Amino acid sequence: xxxxxxxxxxxxxxxxxxxxxxxxxxxxxxxxxxxxxxxxxxxxxxxxxxxxxxxxxxxxxxxxxxxxxxxxxxxxxxxxxxxxxxxxxxxxxxxxxxxxxxxxxxxxxxxxxxxxxxxxxxxxxxxxxxxxxxxxxxxxxxxxxxxxxxxxxxxxxxxxxxxxxxxxxxxxxxxxxxxxxxxxxxxxxxxxxxxxxxxxxxxxxxxxxxxxxxxxxxxxxxxxxxxxxxxxxxxxxxxxxxxxxxxxxxxxxxxxxxxxxxxxxxxxxxxxxxxxxxxxxxxxxxxxxxxxxxxxxxxxxxxxxxxxxxxxxxxxxxxxxxxxxxxxxxxxxxxxxxxxxxxxxxxxxxxxxxxxxxxxxxxxxxxxxxxxxxxxxxxxxxxxxxxxxxxxxxxxxxxxxxxxxxxxxxxxxxxxxxxxxxxxxxxxxxxxxxxxxxxxxxxxxxxxxxxxxxxxxxxxxxxxxxxxxxxxxxxxxxxxxxxxxxxxxxxxxxxxxxxxxxxxxxxxxxxxxxxxxxxxxxxxxxxxxxxxxxxxxxxxxxxxxxxxxxxxxxxxxxxxxxxxxxxxxxxxxxxxxxxxxxxxxxx
RNA sequence: GCGCCCUUAGCUCAGUUGGAUAGAGCAGCCGCCUUCUAAGCGGCAGGUCAGUGGUUCGAAUCCACUAGGGCGCACCA
Length: 587
Prior knowledge:
RNA-binding; Gyrase A, domain 2; 4 domains; 21 helices; alpha/beta; 48% helix; Rossmann fold
């Protein structure tokens, strides 16, 4: 258990005692309060706002409550002193052993340090990528893919039961275009002259191999036939092929989904009908006429009665048509059925990673989830903004129409999977992200990928050198966990340990907020603390990690280094990146 | 017209769900290689947190309005 939790629990206990004893009365439950590292070192090791948080419910001034807490807290051995400051902060100074124990704990637990039971095994569905199978993965897909994947890792580390899911539409207009283009490439493979790809079909060469493979399999079977005969088999063939391509592309950056769901299946196995019937049985379906949409030119608008879903009862701005006037399902219906299906499969939390161009999605789907789950299930959408690609400092124009796309494969081949992954999380998802091919591989401080890897490599470097002084048995985690750590007293060393101690709560708060980028920022900060300490050895040789004539101090510092390496590895694990032992190029 | 998102240092961005004197990096200036990796580190300077009003012990954070920017808004699929 981390220091933060220990102290939090201790304060909680004090409050409960005070309630029983009657020295404290509350008009409500004990409100949430935080135990955190204060910004100012002068304020001690830990600070809590508990007194201020309780003030209202207790009907007493913060400093009075703080006094009660202070009395209750003194004098457990791990707390050196308690001070009340400012408007009612409680500042704690801890015994040095607290931080030393944190190191031992990290060494004992290994990269599982930071694991949490916050999620209590709740089933979480993270849906990401979900591109329709019309082409290979390109730059526009990568950010959402990485965000979703790291979020999935993160939620797992925080104790959720995570399913990674991919939803695609294998019917409809886009896929028909795929089929027609494939058919053209198929004729080309059979020796026909096809000329330029007509407007409205997919340019780019990537469907040549699909056409060729189709020709290989079926020969001239479809040549000269009417579209009504070949569209179905060609579509099926092309979709299967493209999904294989997509999976291979995603595997390049270490992404594999657990479940693939497609629209056609939902229709064919009757899920749409079931979903509709359930809404109907809840009295949420009626026939009515919607007002014309405002603010748009609606030349051909005419009021017509339609089958509607009372989504406005669940916060939607309007009710939604589920059937078109011709009686066929409206386009929203498969999405509705899909969310019903997720709820049916037991997911209490559904997270969807989408581009900001899907702005209306959440407003339409939240009512659906609320209706099917009786408002119990939670749907959140992480909207991620665009990635601007730069090469040599110049922006690269991307155009789907001309087929000028930067593919995922190209990105990985040029900068490596780890760099792509890490870099995608160096911004809040909502902010636009500049991806400069040159910068991502730059080995400088500007490049966060490098900066964090470098910290890990430095840890490894020290440990390699340590072998000259110690046996391998002396350097195992088990052995180092038992070493005396009293010599770790410098400001920089303590700061580093405090940084490490934040790992567990970073995992929890990032998971709770569903913000995987916090992991990347944490790692950059931890790397910074480590580099600071390292550099102290440049100023003062006595502060280097390996001091040949002082083995006890060296061992303590090696314990610190090993723990740091463990946290970095734990973080890289969540990021889905491989820590590098050495960065020096050319050996 | 309506809805969602954004606006923080010259630039690019964080900000732990309402806490103490708002933080990094780059760019600028000043320092640091006889070194476990200087591919780095320390320091200085830089702010009306877009604006106004409100909520309260306390607001970059929550609410309302305003300004600017992005995205979305049919029975499309």
